[in-house]
Amino acid sequence: MGDVVNGKLTIGRWGRRLLMGVSVLALGQTALIARAEDGPAAGGPTAQAGAVYVFDIATKPLPRALADFSAVTGLQVLYSGSAAYSHTAPALQGSYGARQALGLLLAGSGLAARFTSPTSITLEAIKDAEDALVVDPIAVEGALLRGGLPGTEGTGSYATGATNTATKLTLSPRETPQSVSIMTRQRMDDQNLNEMADVLDETVGMTFKEGGPIGSDANAVYSRGFEVHNFQVNGVSRSTKYGFGDDLSDMAIYDRVEVVRGATGLMSGVGDPSASVNLVRKRPTDTFQSAAELQAGSWNRYRAEGDVASPLIESGRLRGRLVAAYQQGESYIDRLETSKKVLYGVIEADLTEDTLLTAGVQYQHHRSDHASRAGIPMFYSDGGRTDFSRSTSSAADWAYFDNTQLTTFAALEQRFDNDWTVTLDLEHARRSYDALIGYGIRGTPDRETGAGMGLYAGRWAAKPIQNSVGLTATGPITLFGRQHDLMAGFSTYHASYEDPSYPLWSIPGYDTSIGNYYTWNGAIAEPVLEENGSESFLERQVAGYMATRLRPTDDLSIILGGRLTSWSQETESRYADGSSSYSEQSENGKVTPYAGIVYDLSDIWSVYASYTSIFKPQSLQDADGGYLQPLVGDAYEAGIKAAFYDGRLNASLAVFRINQDNLGVADGAALTPSGGQAYKAAKGTTSQGIELELTGEVLPGWQVGGGYAHASPTDVKGKRLLTDIPRDTVKVFSTYRLPGAFDRLMIGGNLRWQGAIYANNVGPNGERATQKAFSVVDVLASYRLTEAVTATLNVNNIFDEKYYSSIGAIGYYGEPRNAMLSVKASF
Predict the structure, then answer these.
(1) Bridging pattern class, strands 810-813 and 804-806
(2) What is the predominant subcellular site recorded for this chain (predicted)?
(3) Would you state the pLDDT for residue 356?
């Protein structure tokens, strides 16, 4: 697909084809999504404002949809001109207020609604950009603008109109001078993406390296050639230390997942130049809604999910939402069993017309039993490649991974008459992980007898706690007669744990040998693992940040910002013999600058460029036990973006270059004093590449999300790094709802392709492990049984492609062909 030739990036045949595809799809007219106006349009007559109606309107031309709307509500809708006749309204099923229903039908039409009497509404064309807001269509319901950005839930779209993850300034994707991917609620539902890993695996430019079952520490996500450690929830950053993140999160409680690729130091302070992942929680709704879903699939997998939201008092000033999910199942891997429980509750209270209080709690417990921490050996003892069944397990029958998350949060938002908003976020997150480890990958098996293998055994457990506080103010400012945007904020977090330690890998007196690996079924004596010391960890970060978007002209935006960060980390290990070790790292007053520029070529197209610096302290150790110096460097990005069809279809093309020092690379077979993998710092590493993405509605009823990404990290001599991560990936997911009498049926498909990968010197005689390029195809069919009940069948890896999702001395197979049937009822 793409390559680096003589220092220059070429996108190759497939890249050119995808670019051509974007050009072909870049046809159509643009409009602006109407914002609910002040006065009658925003408030409406009292009778209509409080009423809730049940709608059953299929996708159809807007005039016919408006006729159905009038038949249900008794409201007369008046309009003239051609705008209404050229727009196809989306399907609308369920209970809504009149204004909310009308807003959904008008989304993308270029029309605004105005109540001209208690029983009549007039549609008017939007004549000025100041009368419109490029946001999610559901934002027509003015009350739903409370609490920040509008959600993607209920829009039926794979695209959204606004994001603030990159800078905390509310910008459309086209206005954001970085690559942004947003996985909406609709796409997660259609594609049956219930796990965080599933979402990231389907996101353009992200590579999910699966090396073990969910819940283990064997999995990693990469972007632009580097591992992703930066996770946020509603903009609140997590410590990048193992155990503090939300990488195991279930998707039931989230409205969307926003991924900003590249360095995000402005918001995260310390972090990799790979990407930042922000999970945005679901919120209560102004009207009652509920849904229940049951799933059953391959390997005895079952899932049940319930979701109810409603005003809690008649005035609607107090609203609540409750989400619960439970799943259990086996796996294509022998003996592996998993279970998960999820519970989420949140309330919103309008303390005044301009003051919003939000408070909630989320809980998740995930357990994997008979679980390995890796896959299976890729080599025999003579250096030949193995060919095990995908069901082969290397887990001891007593091994498990147990993870619990409990988070309580609150937010207070104050809006002012000058359009400024100040938000205070508080969060207390408690995590617990306990892993009893036993997996048979020590050594290489004899080709004939299966002898020569042993067990790695041990235990680790901790209860991390993080307390976070954030204060942000955003609003407009006026300079030189023009309006600009300003954001300023403060954040701090305190992350810690103090827990016992246990024997790991080397256990005196314990026999780790496995007689015949080919017939082994996980039966082996469980080791006695008593506490042999303890470890304490403490991390603090305090930061202030500011960003502004200056608008010298209508077509030009300049975004400037910076972050001032102070960070410290302390680790102390105490051993059974009374000895101890202590390490401390700190950085005070570290400045992270940010700059971006966006120029609108037209109402559709814009070009952009951005720069930010990189800074990340590291917990990786060298062979002497010392910590590597912090990652430092610079990240550059430039590209072109487009918003077609009123923002319902977004396209972007980005090129990037990352310069970095002190990247931690594995130091061969060297180990740290504690027995872990030793690393060395690589100087002068770079990564450059290209990303292309297309997301949204191509034609009425036809949605697409996906693209192409190329990233090539190299060392100072130009030698490729991270060869076990593909340089080229293609991901395309698309659905189509049939028109007319067949509109109850939706069909879809998904393609994931990745280039070849390899790992050198991993066999017993220095052999190379390889995985050739491969593709995986998924399909789905969804049928609306009634207006409230929909059945969906997802079939993954329909051609049963056999491939390794990670390689090395040990390889881990990807999932074989499997299916999941879902039945969802909405009320």
Answers:
(1) antiparallel
(2) membrane
(3) 95
Beta bridge partners of residue 359, listed in sequence order: 347, 410
Same domain flag for 641 and 756: yes
Distance CA 708, CA 732 (A): 9
Does 312 share its domain with 355? yes
Has this prediction a pTM greater than 0.70?
A: yes
Q: What is the mean pLDDT of each run of 10 residues along the chain (827 residues)?
A: 40 40 33 29 35 79 80 71 65 79 81 66 60 32 49 85 83 91 95 95 95 89 91 89 88 95 76 86 91 97 97 93 97 96 97 94 97 95 95 96 96 92 96 95 94 94 95 93 93 94 91 94 94 93 94 94 90 89 86 93 95 79 77 90 88 94 74 71 88 93 95 90 94 94 93 96 94 97 93 98 95 97 93
Half-sphere exposure at residue 375, Cβ-oriented, CA atoms within 13 angstroms = 28
Whether 340 and 488 share a structural domain: yes
User: Cβ distance 813 to 803 under 8 Å?
Assistant: yes
Continuous H helices in 264-398: 265-268
User: Domain limits at 202?
Assistant: 180-281
Q: What is the CATH number of the domain that holds 436?
A: 2.40.170.20
162 domain-assigned: no
Tell me how long the chain is. Answer: 827
User: Rounded to 5 degrees, what are φ and ψ at 615?
Assistant: -150, 125
Same domain as 276, residue 207: yes
Same domain as 679, residue 723:
yes
Q: Write out the two tokens for 631.
A: 């990652």
Rounded to an integer, what distance in angstroms lies between the CA atom of residue 284 and that of residue 322?
9
- Tell me: do 394 and 263 sit in the same domain: no
| Dist CA 187 CA 204 (whole Å) | 14
552: left (phi over 0), alpha (psi -120 to 50) or beta: alpha
Based on the structure, what is the number of domains in the chain? 3
